[in-house]
What we know:
The structure is a single chain. The chain is built from 9 helices and 15 strands. The strands form 2 sheets. A 9-stranded mixed beta sheet has the order 14-13-12-11-7-10-9-8-15. Strands 3-2-1-4-5-6 form a 6-stranded parallel beta sheet, sandwiched between helices. The N and C termini lie far apart (48 Å). This is Oxidoreductase.
Amino acid sequence: xxxxxxxxxxxxxxxxxxxxxxxxxxxxxxxxxxxxxxxxxxxxxxxxxxxxxxxxxxxxxxxxxxxxxxxxxxxxxxxxxxxxxxxxxxxxxxxxxxxxxxxxxxxxxxxxxxxxxxxxxxxxxxxxxxxxxxxxxxxxxxxxxxxxxxxxxxxxxxxxxxxxxxxxxxxxxxxxxxxxxxxxxxxxxxxxxxxxxxxxxxxxxxxxxxxxxxxxxxxxxxxxxxxxxxxxxxxxxxxxxxxxxxxxxxxxxxxxxxxxxxxxxxxxxxxxxxxxxxxxxxxxxxxxxxxxxxxxxxxxxxxxxxxxxxxxxxxxxxxxxxxxxxxxxxxxx
Length: 333
């Protein structure tokens, strides 16, 4: 017997929703996009027409009042995540919220508590974690093929600095590269090491031309046994999104670690004394995989792979990174 599809509603017409998340839900096995809402009906109708969404609403409140909508995706600016996620959960909707979950860990904790109280799912939209290649990478690390783990290096940079009106460059809205892309290598290190860092040190380029948000940041997170994540993230640099896992006997390189580059694909490489080998993994829609994991949790009661508590922990690390960057000091967690 086929599972009844989850009816999703989309709160906002952000680029990430139109470009990736909505098509991902539409391609998933468990979900369908039934409605979209914007602050203006015309914009909602136009987006609905472009993406073949049956219903358009001219306000977020109207979508939340629709009793047929079971889950919502929130791609709003960071400072609006808490308000609309909690309102959605209080309306009985499951929530997939764009990363970072909130502006700080206290907000994230409040959201997690609202989820528990309402008895609904709250998930943070880190789509890359749902791709099976990360299970494969963890298996290789645990197998000992690259020896004892010595460090992880992650990057995520792009250049959009000319767009001065971009929401990423509004400090009060949760702008900056750490919020936007630094969260990826941070969450990846926590995932692969299966532990929380002990301290953070971050140096950042705070641009007065961009409301003093961090346009570039470089940092180190200290983990147990002398292992560290070194990372850099930026919105005013050439594009890269890579991950390297270094061991005593070899290393793993992931050329397109978070956003898959079609030219490079989903594959990654393992280097040991025996040479270089390419690990081929299927090209899968990470956004569809994310929607299906949430769908199975809703319909079948399967545990959510990354519960809201994980998002709270990630926000605690991000809080430390932001404090370190602004105060130019090492911050213990």
